[in-house]
Amino acid sequence: MSFFIENWMLIAVAVASAGLLMWPTMAGGGGAGSVNPAQAVHLMNREKAVVVDVCSADEFAKGHVVGAKNVPLAELEAKLPGVVKNKATPVILVCASGARSGRAVATAKKLGYENTSSLAGGMGAWRSASMPVEKV
């Protein structure tokens, strides 16, 4: 017990640090700017969100969200303005695992698309949720 009394300041710093590390997960339900498959479907149906798959053409052909447009990550900065003309339109960025689409959100925001999000878990999460997949 004397350890806690003598080191109360260190313990307070440790607890505060743990709280700050857990805050993004608890507040946002995942990474910043990410949506789960159910939230993505809601955005697509209610707010007419455009789904942009940032995978390569080969990955896109193997299966993608129904109605998604394919713009590989390397070409996103050049081609996104042609695919989504209205920057106020919600945009959901998708890839195989969610890693590339997370980077794509930063690119889209840099281009002025403020209402963008990444599909958390990517196509893996989409398939696990039994959502429809389209193949080319």
**Secondary-structure-derived class:** alpha/beta
How many strands appear in the DSSP assignment? Answer: 7
Helix content: 40-55%
Largest sheet: 5 strands, parallel
List the total number of helices: 7
**Low-confidence runs (pLDDT<50, min 5 residues)?**
27-31
Note the gap between the termini.
66 Å
How would you characterize this protein structure?
With 136 residues, the chain is α/β, with parallel strands linked by helices. The protein has helices at 2-6, 8-28, 37-46, 57-62, 76-83, 99-110, 122-128; strands at 34-35, 50-53, 64-65, 69-70, 91-94, 116-119, 133-134. It is elongated.
The gist of it:
The protein is an alpha/beta fold. Helix content is 51%, strand content 15%.
Which features would summarize this protein structure in a list?
single chain, 136 residues, alpha/beta
Record the SSE blueprint:
Layout: H1 2-6, H2 8-28, E1 34-35, H3 37-46, E2 50-53, H4 57-62, E3 64-65, E4 69-70, H5 76-83, E5 91-94, H6 99-110, E6 116-119, H7 122-128, E7 133-134
Parallel strand pairs: 1-6, 2-4, 2-5, 5-6
Antiparallel strand pairs: 3-7
